[in-house]
Design a protein that fits this description.
The chain is of the alpha/beta class. It contains 14 helices and twelve strands. Strand 5 (151-155), helix 7 and strand 6 (179-183) form a beta-alpha-beta unit. The radius of gyration is 20 Å and the shape is globular. It binds pyridoxal-5'-phosphate.
């Protein structure tokens, strides 16, 4: 009954490595495992959602013109260069559906976000993994790896390393003509983007989300930026009502409150600097990050990643151990930047750990 490729995925246990190894629900629990915005959405978004709730009896506008216009203005592209998805997860999947033939290969530099592999496999593609040597983006190696694939996924900044390929490097890869899907889920924290470039090129699609800096992870809204032909393909194969009414209203209002966005980005930037500095003082290797999380080698504390996360979980702080991420190894964890008091609690617990060891 089950298709061959899905049975194969189930047999080899390829599925999304869920962060919730622990039950993060009680008040006071500190979830630093999911790269969410610790401040939540703008209060104006919450008001807009309350107003929109009264209208959930009717379907959302399937073309979402108002949201596309608002995104277009925010990014600096025309609305026809924007497709909207049920989270950027859906757009990763739609891109594979749209551009892959069965058996074609997809370049996936590692370690990275697990959805690229999942979407590739479930749509009949074959991942071609490339482990980033020392977590560095070496353009010559990427160029070589691109020669025998149909398309490539690249986080910029990448989850979980927190950095990305340089702009010049990316331009070199684009010159080769293969389709590059650049995931800018963390763009607001990074401050660099190729979204405008995507609207003019034939082989670049940029994915973004409202789940991170805008604090709308529970609403599920993401978007793709590309030239109108590429965007038209995604639009033609998506389900008609993929982005619900609340999600559309919430995202439009989130874009209107740019002051709130700037505040969040500033606070997260300060938190990142603080955590990084303190972790370095504790002797850990911390990769430089442009996003709202840090990838950290915890082995200098004499623990591996699962042991480190179990220790923090006892104090109700939840970090993401990366041993289930392909290519990350046993000693790395990913820690999202929290609110100031959460960051202080984290560092306090780690100081206790260090003193006890
Ligand atoms: C690199 C990257 N892309 C996409 C997503 C998913 O975003 P969304 O919530 O829009 O599906 C995540 C979430 O963690 C991510 O890290």
């Amino acid at each position: 009954m089950i298709s061959k490729r899905v049975s194969e995925m189930m047999r080899s246990k390829v599925s999304y490595p869920l962060a919730r190894r622990y039950d993060v629900r009680a008040r006071g629990d500190i979830n630093l495992a999911s790269n969410e915005n610790p401040f939540g959405p703008s209060p104006r978004v919450v008001q807009a959602l309350r107003r929109e709730v009264a209208r959930v009896g009717s379907y959302p506008d399937p073309r979402a013109p108002e949201l596309k216009r608002a995104i277009g203005d925010y990014v600096g592209v025309k609305a026809e260069c924007v497709a909207i998805g049920n989270g950027s997860d859906e757009l990763v999947d739609l891109a594979c559906k749209a551009f892959l033939n069965p058996g074609e290969r997809v370049l996936i530099p590692l370690p990275t976000f697990a959805m690229y592999e999942l979407a590739c496999r479930v749509n009949g593609g074959v991942p071609r993994f490339l482990e980033l040597p020392n977590f560095e983006w070496r353009v010559e190696e990427l160029k070589r790896a691109l020669t025998d694939v149909k398309l490539a996924f690249m986080g910029r900044p990448n989850n979980p390393t927190g950095d990305g390929i340089s702009l010049n490097g990316l331009r070199e890869l684009l010159a080769g003509g293969k389709l590059l899907i650049v995931d800018e889920a963390y763009v607001e924290f990074a401050g660099y983007s190729v979204a405008r470039l995507a609207s003019r090129l034939e082989n670049l699609l940029v994915l973004r989300t409202f789940s991170k800096a805008f604090g709308l992870a529970g609403l599920r809204v993401g978007y793709a930026i590309g030239n109108p032909e590429l965007i038209g393909v995604l639009e033609s194969i998506r389900a008609p009502f993929n982005v619900n009414r609340l999600a559309q209203a919430g995202a439009i209002t989130a874009l209107e409150d740019q002051r709130y966005l700037r505040k969040v980005v500033n606070m997260v930037g300060q938190g990142r600097t603080y955590i990084r500095r303190e972790l370095l003082k504790l002797g850990m290797r911390v990769l430089p990050s442009d996003a709202n999380f840090l990838m950290v080698d915890v082995s200098p504390l004499g623990l591996d990643a699962p042991e480190f996360c179990d220790f923090l979980a006892k104090g109700k702080i939840f970090a993401r151990e990366l041993s289930s991420f392909r290519g990350a190894g046993p000693n790395y964890v990913r820690i999202s930047v929290g609110s100031p008091w959460q960051n202080k609690r984290l560092i306090g617990e780690l100081k206790k750990l260090k003193e006890g060891s």
